[in-house]
Every structure is written in C-alpha cells, then in structure tokens.
Amino acid sequence: MKLMINIGIPSKGRLKKDIIKVFSQNKLHLFSERGKRDLFAFVKKYKDIRIIYLHAREIIERLADGSLDIGFSGYDLLKESNVNIQKKINVIKKYNFGLADLVLAIPSQWIDVQTVADLEEIAFILKEKKNQRIRVATKYPNLTKEFLYSKGVTQFKLVYSLGATEAYPLSGSSEIISDITSTGETLRANNLRILIDGKIISSQACMIVAKKSVKKKNIKKFIKLFPKE
Q: H/E element holding 64?
C-alpha cells in the first residue's frame, strides 16, 4: 500500500488560483467530493495524493511538524517563520507568480526622510518629545526587526497588524509600516511611500517540501510531474 502524500495549497486568493493552474498545466486535475467549500481535494488518477486547503502561513507550520509533505506558499512567509521551522523545510521550485516585495513605507509628507538610516533621527525625536518609540505596523515582525537592526535602527516598537496595514499610520496606530506589495499602488493610495533602501525581501510562490518527506520515493515521483521553472 502506497503512503498518502499530503499537499498543502493556499485556501483562497490569487495564489490559490495560480497554483491550481500549475497543477492543471501539468495534467493534474483536482476534484473535491463535497464541492467548492471542501477543504480537501484529490488528484484524478493519483489515489495516493491528498490536497489540503490551508492558510498560506499555516502551510509552512504544517510542513515543519510533518503533517504535510509538500506545500505551496510564499517565500516571504517561509523566511518570516522562525529558524527552527526553516531548518525542516526545503525549497524545491520557485514560480514566476506571487511576485511581491516586503518593504518599509513611511508617510509621504516626511520629505526629509529618504533612507532607513534617517528613521533613527525621527525615532530619537519621538523619544524626546513624546517619550515613545517609533511604531512599525506589520504582519512580518521577524523580518522587519532583523532588517531594522541590520540598518542600525534600534529605537522602534513593532505593532502586529491584524488587517489593512496601510491604514495604521492614518488611524494613528503606528508611524510607519512594513508590508508586502506588488505594485505599490495601495501604499500610494494611503499616502505612503517606500524608502529608497526600504526593500526587506523579494518574494514569489514556491513549492516547498518537508525534509522528513523529501527522500520518500512517491514524493520524488510527484515532484518530477512538475517541469522546472
């Protein structure tokens, strides 16, 4: 009896559609037994493959704990996860979709602030006048903190974003943000601009595999069904 291959695919959004398209292009046709709302799917003619629709962030965690063998998610989410999780996962393929950058953005009216280094001066002014640190709203606390420290900025406080991060400065919940963007249009629409050296990381969709699973014969066979990008 063949072992079941558990594969995680994002449960919603453009990333889900693009990944399902990759399956279709490689003659791997997905079907669900309980309709569109079903969180599980299967691949026609491959009885040993089970698809599980999960949040893109959760796919990374499930690969690390071994409940998924293969997953499709964003490179940014993998790098945001803690080091112990990253050590348990291999990136097998990168795709030409899901392209975006994680960036540091500030209010457009801060005309004297052009680079990340300029933030340190703003941070000290806030500390002196309001006795508070510069607040950075983000869904990527690990990457943001690492990036700011690497640039010599230390006087900041991370504010974890639960929704539309771009709205945080306007609502007074933070001074600046770090967020994922593909065109920058949403940032500009909310009166924000990216710092000259404010790109934290470039991201794209990836096929990623749990290291525990990579040596299994049926896993290798499945990966070969996808052409290299």
A: helix 56-65
